[in-house]
Structures are given as structure tokens and as C-alpha cells.
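Standup, Tuesday
Yesterday: got the pipeline producing C-alpha cells again.
Today: sanity-check two examples.
Blockers: none.

Example 1:
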Amino acid sequence: MILRFLAAVLLVGVAATLLVIAWPSLFGLAGAPVIAQLVSLRALSSLVAVVGAGAFAIIAGLWPAARRFFAALAIIALGFTAINLAVLSARGFGAESLAPPGDGEITVLAWNTRGDATGARSVADLALAERADIVALPETTEETAVAVAELMREGGRPMWVHTIAFDEELELKARSTSVLVSIELGEYARDDQVGNTTVLPSIVLRPVDGDGPTIIGVHPVAPIPNELANWRADLAWLDEVCRGEQVIMAGDLNATADHFTATDDGPGMGSCVDAGLATGNGAVGTWPTRLPALLGAPIDHVLATPDLTLTGFRVIQSVDDAGSDHRPIVARLRP
């Protein structure tokens, strides 16, 4: 009798834990320790759950005395997987193709270069191939960003270069963020009056003549245990700055849709809508490159205010060997 009671308690505990992991927003725990990391890898955790369900089913078949207990564990694991797959399907598994930009469209490319590890040539070649108007480059120093711009100028696409670094000595290249802006969009200036992310730098650019979208290249810190408070503060800052008329925000957000706030048009930051979710690509993982895209975490994003129409989005999987642990993303927007 005691064993049955303990088994029931254990089953309820396991079911409750998996429900929190699969649906943390229901309990307001998407930013909680451990949960913040696990919910980012829904597809991978679902694969583990399916393997576990198979193992539990085998044990149930071989151990008659514990059949009900292990069969229940298998059912709970499959239920956890079903919830995750429903969420991922709603966000969209995406497509690798993206139509060329139309007249008047703005193309935004974002790529965390892992402290310049990709080199300038890989970034420039990709930006030219995608005909990028804005290139957001977290973990990219000014030296590399200038080299990218020079290569793009040679390729017929001249760019302005803007960089901010929290480590001026460049001992930690990851503490730099660069943004390249096509000269066709006009001249931009950095706005340092609106604050910043806490550990890794973000950059806010506004058009000098007031004509054009505000551009924000972002890099909140990752939600590792000793940085959770800073991570939450960073996301709160993104909520504040991604508002107004014609705002484009791009970069490594170290967050998935589970960590976003609700907008009138779905999950996003501030009043900005996520391009991946809006175009059915929200479940495609961008980190880490050592995992298949459908098992990775979609933590790199392009977001825009509703006065910019999101016409396309793609996670680029052809440069996984370029040196970064992040996949680049590209989005197209129409004012």
C-alpha cells in the first residue's frame, strides 16, 4: 500500500515537472532557473522523452510487478512530447528558400560571429549574396566589421559601420557588437541615451535626418545560473526600446518565444513582432550549429514594429562550418 502511494506521488511529481517545462508560461516560470534553459530546447527534450518512453515501455513489458508504474511513465513522457510538438508546429518548421527582395524591401541579416571566428570574408560573402541592407553582428569587433564593409563595398554594396564595445582592449571580443547599414538607407547615429544591455553590448541607431527605421543590434547575456538577473534585465530593456514607428531589432537575443512578451500580433518584444514566428519559421533552431536545426534553440531573431510588413525569413544552414556556433538568419521587411 505504501509503495503504491509513493509510486502515485512520484508519477504526479514527474507529470507536474514536465508540464512546467512544456508550458512554463502557464505558471509564470519561463524565466526560472533551469526552466529558462530547458524550454529553449523543446525539440531536443522531446526526442529524449520519446527515447525514455520507449525504454519505460520495454521495462513495463519485462517487469510485470511494476508494469503500471512504468507504463504510466511512458504515457506521461509521450504527453510531454505531444505538448512540445503542438507548440513547435504552431511556430513553424520553416523552409530553406527565400524569395529575392522586391522593390522597396529591406533585407536584414544577423549573425553572431563568436568573437570574429567566422572572419570577415564569410560574413561579407553571405551579406552580398542575400543583398543585405542591415547586418547585425553580435560578438564582432570594429576591425572585423570594417573589413566586412570594405569587402561589401568592393562587391558594390557600400555600408556604414557602427560598433560598440564593453571591452575596449578587445581581450574579450564577445563583448563587442557591430551593425552595418547600407548607405542607401541614409546616415545613422548611435543613441547612447536609452541605456543598454548589462553584460554584452547592444546598439541603437537612429536616422540622422529622421527618415527611416530605428535599427537596434542586440545581444542580451545568456540565462546561465549566475547571470539570470542580468538576463531578465536585458529582456526588460529590449521590451522598452523596441517600440515606436518603424523599429527593426536583430541579433542574438538568447531567448526563444517562450521568453517573449505578448503583443497584439503575437509573441514579441515591446511592440515588435518576431519575423520567424510571423512567417512560420519560429521553431527552426539557430544554436548550436552542432545540433540539427530542428533540434536546436531558436534564439537569434529579427523583430519589427507592425508598421513594417514581414515578407520573409530564413535560418541559413549552409555555413555551419564557418566558425560560429550560431546560424545566421535573414529577414525581409517592407515599409
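Example 2:
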Amino acid sequence: MRLRLRLVCSALLCWVCVSSFAQTSTLSPGLEILLRKAGWVQIGLQKSTGAVAIQVKSGAVCMGPSGKVYDGPGGTFRATADRKGINLTSPDGRLIQGEWFVVEPRADGSVATWETSGNGYRGRAQLVHNGSGMRVINQIRIDDYLKGVLPAEIGSSPMEALKAQAVAARSETIFKLAANRHKADGFDLCTGEHCQAYKGVKLEEQPSNEAVDATAGYVLTNASGAILDAVYSNVCGGITAGAEDVWDSEPIPGLRPVFDSPGKAAGAVDVSSEAAFRRFLDDSSRDFFCDSKNAGYPKYAMKYFRWKKTVSGEQLAKVAGFSRVRDVAVAERRPSGKVWVLRITGDGGVKDLKKELPIRRALDLWSGLFYVDVTRNPDGTVANATFTGGGNGHGVGLCQMGARTMAARGMGFDRILNHYYPDARVVRVYRP
């Protein structure tokens, strides 16, 4: 892939290509890394293992430390690893040894793919020696990678929602290149929620592929031109969160809270008081984009918009490490309504559960957007705590179910993105 990048900076708008990388110091860090990689990213697949089979249906080329080691018909490359390196058997039966190998399938009139462990992938298969085993890495062009991300992250959706998801996922991918989370692992991104869900070609769908192609090169940037970490979640519950409401983060322009409804009110969102939050969550008359009553809402997500979960006093005591629990209450709530501190009081003192994700995990809740009501035993201890909540996930940025509704109502992907990422801009930074 030869990327042509459009630089967006305060005083200059110009075009550069891969050969002029030395001139690109003003680029956002993630975009600079993508340019250096000529549009390719590396996705860590199988963990270190002692045996791997790479199947290629079309013709294939295999490179190793000594250069080209195979160029011929498709077939199966079988590899084992020991402490000395990788032992690769090519489709024609030859044994080749080395520290790494890259298998690239040739196109045979269709998309060139390869397969391992029952999953198919675009791009190249890289085997890297790793101690006594090896790591399987998928080297893939960024937009081909996104074609395996969209179906895993948002599923079948209206086209404009798919386009919005593609732009958000592309932005997050490029941003994470600079974060270099998996430097020690030898690749750029993993296949799970830590980065973005990625399933290769087996889940690809034509509409989502078209959405990726239609938005090629488009990302979200802040006012200074830096690419936004355009995170997203499944169901926001009627209000999105700021990054600072969920993580140890300073406020990030473009990731501030908004009500997930038409004609969102101007000014800051603030439902941090208990009374204001309960009014918001219990308001059944308001038109929320991610409300499960909206037409076309997928069945699997209907349980998330509003939910209840009851936790026994015994369970709470176990979580807090107490013999008995005297009370459980929200001690601090962020302006978006997200619970920041949940306080459990017991015979052993006070236990504060802090931050959205640890609270969710401790109590197995779908989101940190909830209030809690307590029923008591005759002795005043907690019998049960009922959590009434909304949403599924962290709730920052794009709300996937809300985006579906906006698209179904005829709104374009740029309007959807402007709704969920206020103060951000949709910019095209490269052309494939």
C-alpha cells in the first residue's frame, strides 16, 4: 500500500508520500508511525506455541532471514519451534530453518487469504521465534484490518452507522500505534477488547467492507490536528461519559459527555447529584437514540438500555471482606452519572470501590451508570442491594446502538460522529 497523506497543521496544507517521510515531523504520532509502516499494521494472533500450520489456497511466497525460501503453488506450511529456532516445512516438502518467516499469499482473482487454527486472514502470516515457541502475527493493511474489526465490534447495522464505526475504529487504531501497548510482544495490536476485537475474514460482511472502503483515510482529530483516541461502546444508556469520568485521565476534547438524544442541550452535562441522576435514569418519556424501544434494535442488546441486578448482603460482604454489611451507597458520581466511588460499610470499617471498570467487575454489572437501593434485615444489616442501571460498557465516545438509530433516521456518518465526539473534526488524512 502506498499511502498519500494530507498533513493538517496550523499553517500548512500539503501532500506527501512515503518517500518523503523526512518531511513529516508535524504529523500526529500515530499517523507518523502508520506512514513509516507504509500503511501496514501487525496484529498478534496465536500466543507462543510449539506447532503451527499456515494454509494458503492460492500461490504463495515465503521469505526468511536468508531471503526468498519458497515461491510456488499454495498448500500448507508446517512449522515447529525449539530453542534453536523455527523449523518450517514448505508445501513442496523442504525443511527450512530460521528465526522468522513471512508467508504472503498471491491473489488468484479473489481476495488473497491464509488460514491458521480455523480462522482466515488477509495480508501476510509472520512466524517469529519466541524462546522455545513462536508467535503468529498478521501483517495487514490498516483498512483490511478494519474489515475484520467492524463485524466483531458493531455487527450488521445501517450503512451510515457502519461508516461512523469505521472512522472511529480507524482513529483508535492509529492513536494506539503511538501508544505502543504491545511493544514487548513484538506487534502493534492484539485481537481483544484491550485493543479492538478482530476476527479476520470469517465474520466479514459486504456492507461493513463497503463502509471501510467508503471512508478510507477518514479519522477524527482534535482542534490541533492530533488524531483522537475515538473509543466507543455498545450502549451508553442515554448519556455518554467523558474520559475523566471513567479512567485516570484529564478531560479530552472530543470525549465530553452528551445526552444521547435529539437536540442535545447546550452547555455542560451534569447529573452528578443523586436526585438529578435518578430523574434522568427513570425518565421514560425522553427520546434516547440508544433506547431499546427504537425500531430495528437488535435483540441481543435489548437487555442493556435499562437493567436491574440484585446482589445479596452476603455477596457484598465477600466483595468487601467484611462479615456483615451495614450499608452500600454511591459516595461519588461524575457529571455524566458514572459512579466513581461505591462505598460499602461493614463491621470491619469502610471499603471504597473506585473507578468504573473495577466497580463493574467486582459486582458483575453491565455499566457504571446506576443507582442503588437497599433492603435490610431486622438487625439493620443489608439483606439485598438492587442496582438499577443503564447501558453496557464504559459509555465514552460513539454509542453503537445510538448510532444505529441515528442512521436509521436518515442521519449521515459525519453527523453521527459530530454528535458523539463534540469538538472533534472528521478529516481525511490519507488516500490508499
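Quick observation on example 2: Residues 159-179 form the longest helix (21 residues). Residues 85 and 99 are 5 Å apart (CA to CA).
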